């Protein structure tokens, strides 16, 4: 939306303040909806009643990773998306997203290319404007906070197709470093800071690093590894959030939102 300060969470919050519809649909511009998608979503709000805070459509082309990949991600608690996944946010703040299911499945968080929420949800929660740029994981952060108060579901009867871009938003080293900074920030914000949860964070990071080493070899992209290594070193020393765009000379203050 224009005019508004840069950053996806700011843009979302501006849009929320300038609209009145209920429920609110947040749909990326590279998503195509099935003709009956809205009708099915509205039907779920009517069926569940006020306890339901949000509904997500299922992807037309669901992720179906190999079993070894699912086992690896379960072992390290680093989430991703696969059929009939739990929909839970693990102790390290990684989401086990349900890529497809036979029936309606409760979720603890949504991925942001298609989300819908009751209008009243935004009386309690807003998108966190401390997260800069396209704000990796702002969708999981927001919807996880909503799920502490309301039920969230994904229904297989509502379908959408996400035409993801084939290129990264920034060089992999900067992207991985920024994603890691966001992850540490959101873990501190949303998870208890006890031994179990901190241990899950660092255990998951080890699994993610090994995963990215393999991916870096296949893609011949060392930034997939160096970004994590540098990011982990920075976060272990208390660096906090980073804004690669500001580091490149773009202005923009950061301000946290609940």
CATH topology of the largest domain: Spore Coat Polysaccharide Biosynthesis Protein SpsA, Chain A
- What string gives the helices and strands in order? HEEHEHEEEEHEHHHH
Q: Strand-residue fraction?
A: 15-25%
How helical, in percent, are the residues? Answer: 40-55%
Mean pLDDT: 91
pLDDT below 50 for ≥5 consecutive residues: which ranges?
Answer: 250-258
What's the CATH class of the largest domain, please?
Answer: Alpha Beta
Determine the N-to-C terminus distance. 22 Å
SS content category? alpha/beta
CATH architecture term of the largest domain: Alpha-Beta Complex
Largest sheet: 6 strands, mixed
Tell the overall outline. globular
Please count the beta strands (DSSP E, at least 2 residues each): 8
- Work out the count of structural domains: 2
Helical stretch tally: 8
Gyration radius, rounded: 18 Å
CATH homologous group name of the largest domain:
Spore Coat Polysaccharide Biosynthesis Protein SpsA, Chain A
What does this entry look like structurally?
By secondary structure, the protein is α/β, with parallel strands linked by helices. The protein folds into two domains: 118 residues, Spore Coat Polysaccharide Biosynthesis Protein SpsA, Chain A (Alpha-Beta Complex), CATH 3.90.550; 76 residues, no CATH class. Helix content is 40%, strand content 16%. It is built from eight helices and eight strands, in the order αββαβαββββαβαααα. Strands 1, 2, 3, 6, 7 and 8 form a six-stranded mixed beta sheet that branches. Helix 3 runs antiparallel to helix 6 and helix 5 runs parallel beside helix 7. It is globular, with a radius of gyration of 18 Å. The C terminus is likely disordered.
